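Re: weekly structure request thread

Next one in the queue (207 aa):
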Amino acid sequence: SIAGSDITTKTSAGGGGGASAYTNSGEGTGSDGGSGGGGGGGAGTGNEGSGTANQGYDAGQGEPSSGQRCAGGGGGAGALGQDGSGSSGGDGGVGVSSDIDTVSTTRAGGGGGSGRNCSAGSTNGAGGSGGGGGGGCYANAAVVGDANTGGGGGGAHDVAGATGGSGVVILRMLTENYSGTYTNAETPIEDGSDTILVFNGDGSYTG
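Done, posted below.
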């Protein structure tokens, strides 16, 4: 989030958590968030988590067949997560690219959903471009989301899913207005007539 005495506070919601394969009513539904959490397998249709307008997209549905139990991919900032299909987990939705800090970088990709198991013919969903982690199963651990991208963590089969990556706040301003007073930012970047501050954690800037 970014807040100040003379600006409107802007908060980016955390991503929704993915669902487990259902055994009881409700377990197969992903959570809502900035982007939605993937639906669990075997829970029927409509079990994906929803994204937040202007922040991220809905997740994919889990495979509705109770014999498959593969999960949908998490939503990304730029696209829906893909549905689980057959014994294969859905891919995470892609993120959004920005060059606000001079380097074109894609962030906030969704995590991939877990496949049914590690047997032949079952595959885990890939993480969405932009830091999303791939799905996993058993000893093939799910992949955590990339740090400082807000990428989602991958889902897993029979073990806990991976965590999502931390976010980032980037400020870009005219150098003539830059005060030089900040805490806990990366080294300022100069780009033409602008100065850029990148915060990978809590910090402050005083104008």
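The mean pLDDT is 91. The two ends are 17 Å apart (CA to CA).
Next request, please.
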